[in-house]
Amino acid sequence: MRRRYRNKSSKHAINQDRYLITYADLLTLLFALFIILYSISKPDKERMRELMLAMNNVFNPTQLIQGNNLSPNVSSAPTPPLIMFQEQVVSISEVQSQMESLLGTLINNNTIGFERLPDGLKLVLPNRFLFASARANLLSDSRDIIDSIAVALATVDMQIQVDGHTDAVPIRSFVYESNWQLSAARAVNVAHSLIDRGVPAHNIVIRAYGEQRPVADNMTEEGREQNRRVEIVVTQKDNNVAATLEENE
Predict the structure, then answer these.
(1) Are residues 214 and 167 in contact, defined by beta-carbon separation less than 8 angstroms?
(2) From CA 178, how far away is CA 171, in angstroms rounded?
(3) Residue 126, SS3 per DSSP
(4) What is this structure's pTM?
(5) Could you point out which of 31, 96, 123, 124 has its C-alpha 20 to 30 Å from the C-alpha of 17?
(6) Maximum pairwise Cα distance, the chain
(7) In what order do the strands lie in the sheet with 204-210?
(8) Which residues contact 231 (CB under 8 A, 6 or more apart)?
(9) Residues 122-168 pLDDT 10s
Protein backbone atom coordinates (compact mmCIF):
# COMPACT_ATOMS: atom_id res chain seq x y z
CA MET A 1 0.00 0.00 0.00
CA ARG A 2 2.80 2.43 0.80
CA ARG A 3 4.46 1.76 -2.55
CA ARG A 4 1.29 2.63 -4.45
CA TYR A 5 0.89 5.85 -2.46
CA ARG A 6 4.40 6.97 -3.34
CA ASN A 7 3.85 6.38 -7.05
CA LYS A 8 0.69 8.45 -7.08
CA SER A 9 2.41 11.31 -5.28
CA SER A 10 5.29 11.30 -7.76
CA LYS A 11 2.97 11.41 -10.77
CA HIS A 12 0.95 14.20 -9.20
CA ALA A 13 4.10 16.31 -8.70
CA ILE A 14 5.13 15.83 -12.35
CA ASN A 15 1.70 16.89 -13.59
CA GLN A 16 1.84 20.01 -11.47
CA ASP A 17 5.12 21.13 -13.07
CA ARG A 18 4.01 20.64 -16.69
CA TYR A 19 2.64 24.18 -16.83
CA LEU A 20 6.23 25.44 -16.77
CA ILE A 21 6.82 24.00 -20.24
CA THR A 22 3.80 25.82 -21.67
CA TYR A 23 4.82 29.01 -19.85
CA ALA A 24 8.36 28.85 -21.28
CA ASP A 25 7.02 28.30 -24.81
CA LEU A 26 4.74 31.31 -24.40
CA LEU A 27 7.62 33.52 -23.30
CA THR A 28 9.71 32.38 -26.25
CA LEU A 29 6.93 33.19 -28.71
CA LEU A 30 6.35 36.60 -27.13
CA PHE A 31 10.07 37.38 -27.32
CA ALA A 32 10.15 36.45 -31.02
CA LEU A 33 7.05 38.58 -31.64
CA PHE A 34 8.63 41.64 -30.02
CA ILE A 35 11.78 41.21 -32.11
CA ILE A 36 9.72 41.09 -35.32
CA LEU A 37 7.67 44.13 -34.31
CA TYR A 38 10.82 46.08 -33.50
CA SER A 39 12.49 45.20 -36.80
CA ILE A 40 9.51 46.22 -38.95
CA SER A 41 8.94 49.41 -36.99
CA LYS A 42 12.31 50.88 -38.07
CA PRO A 43 11.80 53.08 -41.18
CA ASP A 44 13.69 52.27 -44.36
CA LYS A 45 15.45 55.56 -45.14
CA GLU A 46 16.50 54.42 -48.60
CA ARG A 47 12.98 53.57 -49.73
CA MET A 48 11.52 56.67 -48.16
CA ARG A 49 14.01 58.84 -50.03
CA GLU A 50 13.25 57.09 -53.33
CA LEU A 51 9.54 57.70 -52.76
CA MET A 52 10.11 61.37 -51.97
CA LEU A 53 12.32 61.82 -55.04
CA ALA A 54 9.77 60.16 -57.33
CA MET A 55 6.87 62.21 -55.95
CA ASN A 56 8.87 65.42 -56.29
CA ASN A 57 9.73 64.69 -59.91
CA VAL A 58 6.08 63.99 -60.74
CA PHE A 59 4.39 66.88 -58.95
CA ASN A 60 7.09 69.55 -59.06
CA PRO A 61 9.83 68.64 -61.58
CA THR A 62 11.49 72.07 -61.57
CA GLN A 63 11.86 72.31 -57.82
CA LEU A 64 15.33 71.99 -56.39
CA ILE A 65 15.78 68.78 -54.45
CA GLN A 66 18.03 69.01 -51.45
CA GLY A 67 19.17 65.61 -50.24
CA ASN A 68 20.67 64.46 -46.99
CA ASN A 69 24.15 65.55 -45.98
CA LEU A 70 26.99 63.46 -47.25
CA SER A 71 29.16 61.30 -45.07
CA PRO A 72 31.99 62.83 -43.02
CA ASN A 73 34.36 62.22 -45.93
CA VAL A 74 32.34 64.51 -48.20
CA SER A 75 30.86 66.93 -45.68
CA SER A 76 32.72 69.79 -47.35
CA ALA A 77 30.78 69.24 -50.58
CA PRO A 78 27.23 70.63 -50.41
CA THR A 79 24.51 68.57 -52.00
CA PRO A 80 23.94 69.69 -55.60
CA PRO A 81 20.43 70.60 -56.69
CA LEU A 82 18.59 68.44 -59.17
CA ILE A 83 17.12 70.34 -62.11
CA MET A 84 14.96 68.38 -64.53
CA PHE A 85 15.85 69.02 -68.18
CA GLN A 86 13.13 68.17 -70.69
CA GLU A 87 14.68 68.73 -74.13
CA GLN A 88 16.99 66.14 -75.65
CA VAL A 89 20.67 67.06 -75.56
CA VAL A 90 22.58 66.37 -78.76
CA SER A 91 25.90 68.23 -78.45
CA ILE A 92 28.88 67.89 -76.14
CA SER A 93 28.73 71.59 -75.32
CA GLU A 94 25.15 71.20 -74.09
CA VAL A 95 26.16 68.24 -71.94
CA GLN A 96 29.01 70.27 -70.48
CA SER A 97 26.63 73.12 -69.67
CA GLN A 98 24.24 70.76 -67.86
CA MET A 99 27.06 69.10 -65.97
CA GLU A 100 28.45 72.42 -64.80
CA SER A 101 24.96 73.57 -63.77
CA LEU A 102 24.19 70.44 -61.76
CA LEU A 103 27.62 69.49 -60.47
CA GLY A 104 29.38 72.84 -60.28
CA THR A 105 29.66 72.83 -56.49
CA LEU A 106 31.05 69.30 -56.39
CA ILE A 107 33.47 70.05 -59.23
CA ASN A 108 34.71 73.28 -57.65
CA ASN A 109 35.26 71.53 -54.32
CA ASN A 110 37.18 68.72 -56.06
CA THR A 111 34.68 66.18 -54.79
CA ILE A 112 34.51 64.81 -58.32
CA GLY A 113 36.76 65.40 -61.33
CA PHE A 114 35.52 66.96 -64.55
CA GLU A 115 37.49 67.07 -67.79
CA ARG A 116 36.68 68.14 -71.33
CA LEU A 117 38.09 65.67 -73.82
CA PRO A 118 38.75 66.24 -77.53
CA ASP A 119 35.71 64.11 -78.35
CA GLY A 120 33.64 64.30 -75.17
CA LEU A 121 33.55 64.74 -71.39
CA LYS A 122 34.83 62.74 -68.45
CA LEU A 123 33.61 62.63 -64.86
CA VAL A 124 35.91 61.05 -62.26
CA LEU A 125 34.16 59.72 -59.15
CA PRO A 126 36.54 58.78 -56.31
CA ASN A 127 35.69 55.46 -54.70
CA ARG A 128 35.65 56.91 -51.18
CA PHE A 129 32.37 58.65 -52.08
CA LEU A 130 30.84 55.52 -53.62
CA PHE A 131 32.01 52.29 -52.00
CA ALA A 132 33.40 50.79 -48.84
CA SER A 133 36.78 49.06 -49.05
CA ALA A 134 36.68 45.90 -51.19
CA ARG A 135 32.92 46.34 -51.71
CA ALA A 136 30.84 47.10 -54.79
CA ASN A 137 27.55 48.14 -53.18
CA LEU A 138 26.93 51.87 -53.46
CA LEU A 139 26.97 53.79 -50.20
CA SER A 140 23.75 55.57 -49.30
CA ASP A 141 25.61 58.88 -49.14
CA SER A 142 26.50 58.58 -52.84
CA ARG A 143 22.89 59.03 -53.89
CA ASP A 144 23.07 62.82 -54.27
CA ILE A 145 25.99 62.58 -56.68
CA ILE A 146 24.40 59.75 -58.69
CA ASP A 147 21.05 61.59 -58.78
CA SER A 148 22.61 64.74 -60.22
CA ILE A 149 24.61 62.82 -62.84
CA ALA A 150 21.49 60.86 -63.86
CA VAL A 151 19.47 64.05 -64.33
CA ALA A 152 22.21 65.51 -66.53
CA LEU A 153 22.45 62.35 -68.67
CA ALA A 154 18.78 61.34 -68.87
CA THR A 155 18.18 63.40 -72.03
CA VAL A 156 21.59 62.81 -73.61
CA ASP A 157 21.51 60.69 -76.78
CA MET A 158 25.20 59.79 -76.68
CA GLN A 159 27.45 56.94 -75.64
CA ILE A 160 27.97 56.85 -71.88
CA GLN A 161 30.91 54.71 -70.78
CA VAL A 162 31.08 53.66 -67.13
CA ASP A 163 34.63 52.52 -66.35
CA GLY A 164 35.72 50.82 -63.13
CA HIS A 165 39.30 51.20 -61.81
CA THR A 166 41.12 49.97 -58.70
CA ASP A 167 44.56 50.35 -57.17
CA ALA A 168 47.28 47.71 -57.49
CA VAL A 169 46.90 46.19 -54.01
CA PRO A 170 45.82 42.53 -54.39
CA ILE A 171 42.27 42.10 -53.17
CA ARG A 172 41.54 39.85 -50.20
CA SER A 173 37.89 38.97 -50.48
CA PHE A 174 35.76 35.83 -50.69
CA VAL A 175 33.44 37.64 -53.12
CA TYR A 176 35.91 38.95 -55.73
CA GLU A 177 38.89 36.94 -56.87
CA SER A 178 40.69 39.88 -58.46
CA ASN A 179 40.71 43.67 -58.74
CA TRP A 180 39.41 43.25 -62.26
CA GLN A 181 36.25 41.56 -60.98
CA LEU A 182 35.83 44.21 -58.29
CA SER A 183 36.13 47.05 -60.81
CA ALA A 184 33.59 45.31 -63.05
CA ALA A 185 31.08 44.94 -60.22
CA ARG A 186 31.48 48.59 -59.24
CA ALA A 187 31.00 49.80 -62.81
CA VAL A 188 27.91 47.61 -63.19
CA ASN A 189 26.33 48.95 -59.99
CA VAL A 190 26.95 52.57 -60.97
CA ALA A 191 25.48 51.90 -64.41
CA HIS A 192 22.41 50.20 -62.98
CA SER A 193 21.94 53.07 -60.57
CA LEU A 194 21.96 55.54 -63.47
CA ILE A 195 19.52 53.41 -65.46
CA ASP A 196 17.16 53.20 -62.47
CA ARG A 197 17.12 57.01 -62.45
CA GLY A 198 16.15 57.40 -66.08
CA VAL A 199 19.36 57.20 -68.12
CA PRO A 200 18.62 55.14 -71.28
CA ALA A 201 20.19 51.71 -70.96
CA HIS A 202 20.98 51.50 -74.69
CA ASN A 203 23.39 54.43 -74.31
CA ILE A 204 25.49 52.85 -71.57
CA VAL A 205 28.69 50.85 -72.04
CA ILE A 206 30.33 49.16 -69.04
CA ARG A 207 34.08 48.57 -68.90
CA ALA A 208 36.40 47.23 -66.22
CA TYR A 209 40.14 47.88 -66.05
CA GLY A 210 41.11 46.76 -62.55
CA GLU A 211 44.54 48.16 -61.72
CA GLN A 212 45.69 48.30 -65.35
CA ARG A 213 45.24 52.05 -65.98
CA PRO A 214 46.57 53.96 -62.96
CA VAL A 215 46.61 57.75 -62.91
CA ALA A 216 48.96 57.99 -59.92
CA ASP A 217 51.75 56.10 -58.15
CA ASN A 218 50.49 52.94 -56.44
CA MET A 219 53.43 53.07 -54.03
CA THR A 220 51.77 55.82 -51.96
CA GLU A 221 48.41 55.91 -50.21
CA GLU A 222 47.53 59.17 -51.93
CA GLY A 223 48.27 57.63 -55.31
CA ARG A 224 46.27 54.48 -54.58
CA GLU A 225 43.33 56.62 -53.50
CA GLN A 226 43.38 58.44 -56.84
CA ASN A 227 43.52 55.15 -58.73
CA ARG A 228 40.40 53.82 -56.98
CA ARG A 229 37.72 55.48 -59.07
CA VAL A 230 34.80 55.17 -61.46
CA GLU A 231 34.95 57.25 -64.61
CA ILE A 232 31.93 58.25 -66.69
CA VAL A 233 32.89 59.23 -70.23
CA VAL A 234 30.34 60.84 -72.57
CA THR A 235 31.08 60.80 -76.30
CA GLN A 236 29.16 60.88 -79.54
CA LYS A 237 27.93 57.47 -80.65
CA ASP A 238 30.09 55.50 -83.05
CA ASN A 239 28.24 55.12 -86.32
CA ASN A 240 30.32 52.05 -87.14
CA VAL A 241 28.86 49.91 -84.35
CA ALA A 242 26.82 46.84 -85.24
CA ALA A 243 23.22 47.45 -86.26
CA THR A 244 20.50 46.96 -83.67
CA LEU A 245 17.92 44.20 -83.85
CA GLU A 246 15.31 46.67 -85.04
CA GLU A 247 17.53 47.70 -87.97
CA ASN A 248 18.13 44.07 -88.96
CA GLU A 249 14.47 43.15 -89.03
Answers:
(1) yes
(2) 6
(3) strand
(4) 0.62
(5) 31
(6) 109
(7) 113-117, 120-126, 229-235, 159-165, 204-210
(8) 122, 123, 124, 125, 161, 162, 163, 165
(9) 999 999 889 998 889 999 888 888 998 998 898 888 999 999 999 99
